[in-house]
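Example record used in the benchmark description.
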Amino acid sequence: MMKWCLALLISFAGASIAVAQGLSGPSSVVAELEPGDGLTDPQYRSDFPRNVAPGWFAWKDKLGENGFRFSIDYLALGQTTDADLGEGEAASGIARFFGSWQATDLGSLTFKIEDRHSYTDVAPQFLGLDGGALSITGTAFNDNGLLLTNLFWTQRAGDGSWTLQIGQIDVTDFVDVYGLVSPYSGFQNLSFNTSPTIDTPNQGIGIAGGLKLSSNFYAVASLADADADPSNPDFDVFSDGNLFKSIEIGYTSGFDRIYLDNVHLTLWHADGSEDQGREEDYGAAFSAAWFVGNQWMPFFRAGAAKGTAALYDRSVSTGIGYYGRNTDLAGLGLNWAEARGFDGDQFTFEAFYRFSISPGLQITPSVQFISDPLLNPDQDNITLFGLRTRIVF
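Model output (structure tokens):
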């Protein structure tokens, strides 16, 4: 399997800066340096915090003109639930420093350093599990501390036909992405982020690339450390041989809209690890999302896995996003899932509304409703309310 995927990677190495968005979904550094969710001519209610620190942003803009772009942001998420079990409340924050340096015409260095910390005994990522639902209710909002989540080199073809990334990568930046995938700006439940049937590893050493196959079709593949620990980066992954591999074939209306209009099939495989107590795992995921009238984004996503490490064995999600005035974003999602070792099905509903006050300030209230929680069969359903904020400097 490893030799097969490596051969495909060599063949499919890359995706132009437009195709590279196939390697740079909505939660990636490339996307987050461009406010507005990829929309043209976004409108906002305010210019905060640029209007209170014009000198800082003018300095940033000047560095950007010389090829070095960066941002510092802070995100906070608070949640409360009526679950019979567990703490009932969770809150955490994420401080991030991220950016890119365009070192050559065709090569760039991307970096991201994070500090993830919890204000409560249970972080939002685990509040659902703590309350009896087999559900990640606050993706990425954990208590993992200081992390190196990106430090990779990107090399592009001069004609825009391929891109190759190598270094400390986050496979969730490009594996099975669509327009509403980001836990920082879209849905909070993992059921509507990267497929919960994919055993995606933590950020670590890897190599990824894609190829522009035609004016509408692309391919993306990756090899990454299946046992990665971004709090203690390990550069011996390829000698250890515990790898995560993926390959994706996709269709888009145009490479400037690759995660807005996108249909794809993803195949993946993760080696087992005795040290981590993980069995071999593999599966497939399908995703279809289309940005209708530059306002509505209906989506349908499904996945299946054979193994023990992914959250669910089978999962189907559907829903819709709506981009309103001032780049506000509303989302509705419904998920059905089943997991090995549990009787019955679990259903998850999430609704959120993101108020985009400015390019540097967003406030997102949300509600999640989980029916027939698999870890607590004595409770019929669990309701969870959340409030997420983000400020960018």
